[in-house]
Design a protein that fits this description.
The chain is of the alpha/beta class. The chain has eleven helices and eight strands. It has helices at 25-41, 60-68, 99-105, 115-120, 125-137, 150-154, 158-170, 175-178, 200-214, 232-236, 253-267, and strands at residues 13-18, 49-54, 79-82, 109-112, 141-146, 181-185, 220-224, 243-246. It has an eight-stranded parallel beta barrel, surrounded by six helices. The longest helix has 17 residues, at 25-41. The structure holds 1,3-dihydroxyacetonephosphate.
C-alpha cells in the first residue's frame, strides 16, 4: 500500500464514491467545494484515509479545478476519477472518451468494468484488460470493479467467478503497473435500488480469496454495494477490505463526510 498515512493495520483506507449519471456542473462544484472546505477545516478527517470521487465525464474538469483550490496550489488531497475511458488514445470512436482526455480533464484514476457497464454497454473481461492497460500506460490508477450475479452466489461460486474476472483483467501486468491498481468487489446483487446489503458472513470468503491472490500485489481491495452509515464500520472490519466504494449514501456530501468519519474512527 503506497499512498498516504497509515492506519493501525498499516493500510490506507480508500473511501470513495461514483456519482454515476448524476449531478449538474453546479451540483458537482458545490459538492467538491464543500468537501475541500471540510478537509481543510478538519485536517484529521482524512487521517489514514484516501478519499476519492468519480464524477460523470462532464464534471471532471470543473471538479478538478475546485479541488485544486483557487490558486491551483491548495490541493484537497482527494483522488479524482473518471467512470470509464476507452482503451485507444484517440480516433473515430464516437461518444467515447480516451484515457489521455480524462487525464487532461484532471482525472487521476479510471474506473473500469463496473457491473452497470458490463450489463448495459458490453464491457467484457477483454475490454477491461485493455482499459486497465491504457490507464496504467498513461500513469493513471485503475479501479477495476468485479462482482457476481445472485445466481452465481446461490451456486456457491462467487470467489471463483470474481477471481476469473480479476485475473482476466490484470493478466500480464508488471508489478509496477499493479502498484497502481485497486480492485473493488461489488456483488451485482448488492448494488443499487434493487440490491440488498451483503452480510459480513457472505463477504468473508470472497475477500479471503481476493486477499490471498492479490493482497500483496495490488494497491488495495475495496468493497462496494449498498454501503450505508449503519454497515460501513462492520464492512471495513472484514479481513482483506481496504476501503469502500459507495454510490447512493455518498451522493450527498453529508453522507460522504459521515462515511469518512466512520472510517477514520474505525482505523484509529
Ligand atoms: P450503491 O452504494 O448505491 O449500492 O452503489 C454501489 C456502486 O455501484 C458503486 O460503484
Amino acid at each position: 500500500m503506497s499512498v498516504g498515512a497509515s492506519t493501525v493495520q498499516g493500510r490506507t483506507r480508500w473511501i470513495g464514491t461514483s456519482w454515476k449519471m448524476n449531478k449538474t456542473l453546479a451540483e458537482a462544484r458545490d459538492y467538491a467545494s464543500g468537501l475541500a472546505a471540510a478537509l481543510r477545516a478538519e485536517p484529521g478527517l482524512a487521517a489514514g484515509l484516501q478519499p476519492f470521487i468519480i464524477p460523470p465525464h462532464t464534471a471532471i474538469a470543473a471538479t478538478s479545478r475546485v479541488l485544486a483550490g483557487p490558486q491551483g496550489e491548495d490541493d484537497a488531497g482527494v483522488v479524482l476519477g473518471a467512470q470509464n475511458a476507452h482503451w485507444e488514445e484517440s480516433g473515430a470512436w464516437t461518444g467515447e472518451v480516451s484515457v489521455p482526455q480524462v487525464r487532461d480533464a484532471g482525472a487521476q484514476l479510471v474506473e473500469i468494468g463496473h457491473s452497470e457497464r458490463r450489463e448495459h454497454f458490453g464491457e467484457t473481461v477483454e475490454t477491461t484488460r485493455w482499459k486497465v492497460q491504457a490507464a496504467r500506460r498513461h500513469g493513471l490508477r485503475a479501479l477495476l470493479c468485479i462482482g457476481e450475479p445472485g445466481s452465481v452466489r446461490d451456486a456457491g461460486e462467487s470467489a471463483a467467478y470474481i477471481l476469473d474476472q480479476a485475473r482476466g483483467a490484470l493478466q500480464g501486468l508488471s508489478q509496477e503497473d499493479l502498484d497502481g491498481v485497486l480492485i473493488a468487489y461489488e456483488p451485482i446483487w448488492a448494488i443499487g435500488e434493487n440490491g440488498r446489503p451483503a452480510t459480513v458472513e457472505e463477504l468473508r470468503k470472497p475477500f479471503r480469496a481476493l486477499e490471498a491472490e492479490f493482497g500483496e500485489t495490488v494497491e488495495g481491495i475495496l468493497y462496494g454495494g449498498s454501503v450505508n452509515l449503519d454497515n460501513a464500520a462492520e464492512l471495513l472490519g472484514i479481513d482483506g477490505v481496504d476501503g469502500l466504494f459507495v454510490g447512493r449514501t455518498a451522493w450527498q456530501l453529508e453522507g460522504y463526510l459521515q462515511l469518512l468519519r466512520i472510517a477514520g474512527r474505525q482505523g484509529a
